[in-house]
Structure prediction request, 316 residues.
Amino acid sequence: MVATAPVELLEPDKIRPNPDNPRLIFRSDELEALEKSISQQGILVPLTIFQDGKFYTLLDGERRWRCARKLGLHRVPAIIQEKPDRITNIMMMFAIHNARNDWDPLPTALKLEELEKELSKQLDRSPTEAELAAAASLSRGEVRRYRKILRLPDDLKSQLLEELNKPRVEQHLTVDHVIETISGVNQLVNRGIIRERSKERLINSTIEKFKASKLRSTTEPRLFARIARSYERGEIKKEVILEEIQKFHSRKDYTIENIFENTSMVFDFEYSTEQLLYRTIHRLEEILETNAIRSDSLAESIGQMEKILRRVKRLL
Prediction:
């Protein structure tokens, strides 16, 4: 934010945090690093605040303010801005922090929901996606992502908030883990492999394995969708999949990859290979029709493929 007023020195105890700050989580390990820097060099960037009665409210610099109080500093540098109304306050908070990459998605989504409510009051209608994005200094894609996060079940949002209070090195569950898990499990439900009442149990088992670091790849739940498609093509029986899912529930170290390997991996590989060959055949037919070979390297590649195909055919 561009300074519009001179820097003043104020007592930290006269400053209050902003209730509309989308940043809800302040990790102790990160604060300790900043605290060390401030103890050595002081606060190099002034806080941005506005006056609210006999106190001041933060617009920018809550981490610096927290560290100053912990260090027992008697004065902190601050720039005083005019007091905004609530909707402008939220918009300013988003704008100030828009370029920062350390915001957590879930708290940001929750604050975006509040901004949407305030805009609805002001406009007397729900804001469009474009209007909400502009107000929050976000892209429309980011707005869609945050809205998707808001649709997560309340119990999973609570688990995510608990996880966010841990130091980063101890966090094993993220918003993306939860979103990928729900999406993958839904594929099994949509194809009738598991019932709706079994969905929650499979989601919870997957979430717990992420939290215990038994699952490490964020995209591993996508294998559920590949298993579901294999079932839909008639390559694997439902009973086999359900037996593997039961192992997943009961065995601590059993992963989604284990389920995939024991159900659909071979079929999935063959199917994807078949689709790739189909696309290659189609492209080669286009070459025959247009006589499109113009380079020696393409002719050489086709020759190498011909040799490999002869070797593969002998295995069939």
